[in-house]
User: What shape does this take?
Amino acid sequence: MIRKAVRFIDERTGSASFLGKALRYVFPDHWSFLLGEIALYSFVILVITGVFLTLFFEPSLAQTTYHGSYAPLEGQHVSKAYASAVRLSFDVKAGLLMRQTHHWAALVFVAAIVVHLMRVFFTGGFRKPRDLNYYIGLTMLTLALVEGFAGYSLADDLLSGMGLAIAYAVALAIPLVGAPLAFLIWGGQFPGSSDFLSRFYIAHVLILPIAIGVLISVHLLLIALPKHTQFRGAGRTEHNVIGTPMWPGYALRAGGLFLATAGVLFALGGLVQINPIWQTGPFEPWLGTNGVQPDWYMGWLIGALRLMPGFEPHVFGYTIFPNPFFGGILLPSIVFGLLYLWPTIERRKTGDHHAHHLLDRPRDNPWRTATGAAVFSFIALIFLAAASDRIFVSFGIPYTGQVWFFRIAVFVVPVIVYRLTKLICEELRDSDAHPLRGSATREVKRQQGGGFTA
Amino acid sequence: MKLRRRGPGDQEASPRPTANAGTELVVAAALAGAALAAVAFVVVYIVSADTQLLGLSLGLALGCLAVAAILAGQRLVPQEHVVEERPQFGDVSEQQQLELELVEPASGISRRKMLLGVGSLAGAAVGVAAVVPLASLGPSPGDEIGSSPWRRGLAVVDEQGRQLGPEDVPIGALVTGFPAGADPRELGSPVVLVRLPQNQLQLPTDRADWAPQGIVAYSKICTHAGCAISLYRYPLYRPTSPGPALVCPCHYSTFDPTRAGKRIFGPAGRSLPQLPLAIDQAGKLVAGGPFSGPVGPAWWGVRRT
Assistant: This one.
């Protein structure tokens, strides 16, 4: 049977030799190389569950009366989008499983991308010739954030409406072009024209997934062309790559990782409730509720909006920079700008224009690792600040006190983190000890009369 | 180390894993478990479609498959450790060849600069023409942005359209009002109404008559990010508690209802626009005029008061 299949393909495409080489493609072994794979597999699950959802969801803001098995909403006037999302959750067999798995997969997708980005950053995997691929990865992260936000904004429940209100305010806050731009996106002033939801829907189910899918293909191609990076080790040089070939060992293990990712996501989707839109209820612009939190990857932006003091530069009584500009536009622009510019910054600083295929350990480049850790601590603190209202509810620490603490900490802590990380890296680099296992090497001396002492 | 040639790369002689009957059994058991869990999924789907059981059975099926695949990959198939040459990029002579191929055809053209200039112009113009239809997406902000349907004499109604009177706004309560006959979803529509003891009110002198019986009204849309002001802090234990405040649940911008909606904490940059209130002949609440300023989140050039 295999022989028949091979002959069928080769006689029509002439690709037997190419496929044979592809099966021998070598994957270096390290657990940290699997983080990007988890993102890829989450994307596959997102597409599968997402297609299922589109067969039931109705992206319309037209009003309807809810009739279904969720009794508290019975007879209420809601949008068709909200009604269909609730119906999908309660009256479609396996509908809630698919919806919750889709949501969990989105959270894992972005998380895996972020951790993968950190791996690439701290090991210097972004250096030439992979800087190009690094930019593509960053672009996918940006698209994934927008895609995720668009996704949970579709259900037209209270949480999504509050999120969209903030998104509108952030768009409005862009200097000079904010108001016309926001009016284009929403088709008028918030909550927008009746077209708005179908626009977001097309962006979510067509434009952005296709963009991400195309970029994933290019990303994989640009990994395969120069072949994988690898850590230093016995026999490993800049000119070779050592590891497990695609077939059969790696394919089975990678397939296993895909199945494990899918298994965890479906188990989460079935067992752990996420975004119960029937509890928050439908959105109206005059409604709001306390204690709702966005999806995790929006947390740093919410935190930034909350921490920013009520400062709005103005001249002659007219506002120039609306306040959400600082947390919603300026901060992400600086962070992503820094990430995009990093390969250039590092090249400028070190004068190193060579191609690199051997990865650094984080300690090998204390300056890079310390800078990355400092920026990470800055963002992590802002992210934590987004939960300060929950911290108040859970631990009773006054909200205003927390805000002031975070306002100061976001500038102090990164400096400490930078110093400390640099110190630890230099220490480790010089002693060559493993941070957890200690030094693996011992000095061996040859004695004068032959023999060795350890 | 014995090396043998195979495919594009060099490969160390691979120690074939010792035939491991035990592992084969475990893999088979995992596969059987996957089949069982998948059947369970189908049965649950047909019988009850319980979300938890569906997720559990499907997760188990995929998990068992994962265990089988990973075990097979690590224990059953040959463990190869392969060294492969890495292609080196950046052959200068190839680059020069390509450069030549690209540039050569243009060498016969004498007015290269002119054509390039006109070509760029055409490209830019066609590009702009291609983008312009995007303007159909929405109207220009014009007068709509920050505007409000509130006018002098317009009745204050609740969500059901019933006109509100002063008796509907007791001390300590947060009441939402809308302009009679207008679209409640418009940002300029919803207002919060709160009643405060007259002696606590510190409105500017030109707003002294905006609060009949101590009832003040502010736009319900936060001037920071457009969420609905839906929290009302009304202290029960003066003087140790901080004063009354209207709070937005999104980023906790905090406004003082006794002092014309002035921001006292949080990120908002403008005060809440205040709506002058009056009481009509029927003793019900009506607007005494339009809002004190533009409604909703700020934009470049918004008037601050």
About this structure: The first helix of chain B runs from residue 21 to 47. The mean pLDDT of chain B is 90.
